[in-house]
Design a protein that fits this description.
- This protein is 24% helix and 0% strand.
- It is mainly α and 164 residues long.
- The protein has a domain of 84 residues: Flavocytochrome C3, Chain A, domain 2.
Length: 164
């Protein structure tokens, strides 16, 4: 009987010790990352970057890049019933608003059939187009625009550069 009481006592003490140890666990070591906090911490979100209101068109970095939106779209209605972007960018409104008309490709369906109105496939602008912001990149990168690549190749004497 004495050994049974000893075993039960040790078992209870072990369970209590595990509970205390679980409360005092520290965060696992973490790699240096973008979070800036341990895995179990919940850091506050950084403020949303302000949208730039620029006049004119932004330079594109690669062929077929969708143009960025050079103004704020906060509060724009963009749902299946109404697309507020078309108030300025539609075929009829663009001459008066001075905004560029949506590309002719937006009037084609997936079978390249030309439609009278913007294709449902292209109706939700923010699938491809995003507002431009002035923020520092989160991570460094070595992205080069097409012009930079061609210039580098021309300078290297590769013979494949020289786009003007």
């Amino acid at each position: 009987m004495k050994s049974f009481i000893t075993t039960v006592t040790l078992l209870v003490l072990t369970v209590l010790a595990m509970g205390v140890a679980a409360e005092k666990t520290t965060d696992a070591p973490r790699p240096d990352g973008l979070r800036g906090a341990g895995y179990s911490a919940t850091p506050s979100a950084p403020p949303i970057a302000g949208v730039t209101d620029r006049k004119g068109r932004e330079e594109r970095n690669y062929p077929e890049q969708p143009p960025v939106i050079p103004h704020s779209i906060d509060g724009y209605q963009l749902d299946k019933r109404f697309n507020q972007c078309l108030d300025c960018h539609s075929r009829s409104a663009s001459p008066e608003s001075g905004a560029p008309m949506v590309s002719i490709t937006h009037f084609m369906d997936r079978n390249k059939q030309v439609l009278a109105a913007v294709s449902p496939d292209r109706y939700f602008c923010t699938q491809c187009h995003v507002p431009q912001t002035d923020v520092d990149p989160l991570v460094e990168n070595q992205f080069e625009t097409v012009d930079e690549v061609l210039r580098r190749l021309a300078e290297a004497g590769d013979g494949q550069g020289g786009a003007e």
